[in-house]
Amino acid sequence: MDNYIWLIPVLPLAGFIINGLGRNTLSKGIIGFLGSFLILASFGLSIAAFLQVKSSGKIEVEIFEWFAVGNLKIPFAFLIDQLSSIMLLIITGVGFLIHLYSVGYMKDDEGFGKFFAYLNLFVFFMLLLVMGSNYVIMFIGWEGVGLCSYLLIGFWYSNPDYADAAKKAFIMNRIGDLGFIIGIFLLINFFGSTNFNDIFPNAGGSNHTNVPYVLITLLLFVGAVGKSAQLPLFTWLPDAMAGPTPVSALIHAATMVTAGIYMIARSNVLFTLAPDTQHVIAIVGLATALLGALIALTQTDIKKVLAYSTVSQLGYMFLGLGVGAYTGAFFHVLTHAFFKALLFLGAGSVIHAVSGEQDMRKMGGLKGKLKITFATMLIGTLAISGIPPFAGFFSKDEILAAVFAQSPAMYTIGVITAMFTSFYMFRMLYLTFYGKFRGTHEQEHHLHESPSTMTIPLIVLAILSVVGGFIGLPESLGGHHWLHEFLGPVFHKSATMVTTPELSNHTEWMLMGISVACAVVALFYAYSKYVTKADIPVSDTEERPALVDLSYHKFYIDELYDNIIRKPLDALSVLFYKVIDKLGIDGIVNGLGKGSIEASKGLRLLQTGNVGFYIFMMVLGIISILLCIVIK
């Protein structure tokens, strides 16, 4: 019955191998078909796994025993339960739509085959990450998506800036990964296992009262901070826009950045046992959400707006995790996958139409030319802004309600951040699609809607962004929150450990009303500013108000890191090179060599070629030996 489970990750891996080896021989049509079809087939198997979990409970499949060291056994095994089954649907479903979109978007690129091979490999590693039944298998997938992000962000590596962005993503993720792997070692030390089924049921029991849960969870959280772009390791994610737009959609919506959320949600029992860690997660998440929103307010690159929006939305998810709203945080992962993939692919459609231009100051007036793109991006904007009944409204308000139950002060900051979200998203929409076209005549002449391979994924994602939120319809609105009920077995133990104040229906309605009112006010203010008054952002050479300039330059965080981390390390490396390496190590090695050469210059004078001299030296040597024997 479970024999098909191993095929879910193997099919994308097969796509990577076939397209990778045949990238220069297979036609683009075959490569695009294979790359997309194999992900679609994996999606079909993921649906089967989801239905089986829904009817019969979790699925455990051990492929083989990987290795054993003493009492530690690490099986290569998969665990498909309620949490991972939904993640499989997100990864393969949204991943397939991104692959389909890429067929049209990348059709003229010389690296078409290599691009699809990398995409397939990315999906393979992400599937491995969520399917693993232990932390070691998860870590393999974790590192694999880091590798693939490096390959895809730097896909156009001939551009030095893009290559630097890829290296930046790779290095910053390694910082977080160090914390993650140390956390795994501590789990092995205290639990003697990395298997979820060995750790979670026993966590908090009488046999493990000495476990430093705060230390372990903080280290795991460090890993999540790097992978899911939280303060202070968030600056790699906006730079990841260097990759082709489908890569941005895949990283930001369906795969990599959600890995940290998934890992904490999977480890919910451990984090619930460490309330101090949860406070840290909530504070970091809230700060990241606010900072990402503040930066997004003034960006002029359409993809950078969406990138900082992702940073902010991930902050919301961590805020939910920090207050113990695991279902709400995961619900936002689900809805965010729909509307953020839609927005990135929509942005790609716009960029495709305006001949590669990404500056919104050079767009405008596109809604008449790109009707499907505009309609779908409008839906995505409404969804991310939390306007009912779109998907983002339900998931974001569930997080905010849980935050309000624990800290009204944090809730207030969260609502203000939600208002900023509505403003910068509608600002993006208005600058791109409303008013007059501000690009060149050549761009205006070539404006056209994208091909069906690009618009069909937009339409599907738009539909999901409309209806996706209803799987979490709260009881206060007449629903029964199917998602909360479905994920109950995964989060049950954590739910019994925490007593969160229950909110009345009246309070929930009030909180929803406040959130929606703030979003609507921001929506109309953006309309007044950018459509009615046509207040187009200034060029880079003109002056801005101090706070606006601070936001536009991303609060100079990259420059700060450059001055306090990179430059001192560069200076230290130069010191090591000149003093320790050249004068020390090289000096000793070269000195020994020069000493040998100089000594040989004197000794070679003894090699005269005169036989009589050699006999004389031999006799002298014999006499010396005899004298030594006599004296001794």
Describe the structure.
Helices cover 71% and strands 3% of the residues. The longest helix is centred in the C-terminal third of the chain and has 47 residues, at 557-603. The protein has helices spanning 7-21, 28-56, 82-105, 112-131, 135-153, 160-191, 196-199, 213-227, 236-239, 245-254, 259-266, 268-272, 275-296, 302-322, 326-353, 371-384, 391-406, 408-433, 441-445, 452-467, 482-486, 488-497, 505-532, 546-552, 557-603, 611-631, and strands spanning 59-69, 72-80. The N and C termini lie far apart (90 Å). The protein is built from 26 helices and two strands. Strand 1 (59-69) and strand 2 (72-80) form a beta hairpin. It has 632 residues and is mainly alpha-helical. The radius of gyration is 30 Å and the shape is globular.
N-to-C SSE series?
HHEEHHHHHHHHHHHHHHHHHHHHHHHH
Overall radius of gyration: 30 Å
Low-confidence stretches: none
- Secondary structure category: mainly alpha
First-residue to last-residue Cα separation: 90 Å
**Fraction of helical residues:** over 70%
Strand content: under 5%
Q: Globular, elongated, flat, extended or rod-shaped: what is the shape?
A: globular
How many H/I helical runs? 26
How are the strands of the biggest sheet laid out side by side?
1-2
Number of E strands: 2
Largest sheet: 2 strands, antiparallel
Look at the structure and give the mean pLDDT.
Answer: 89
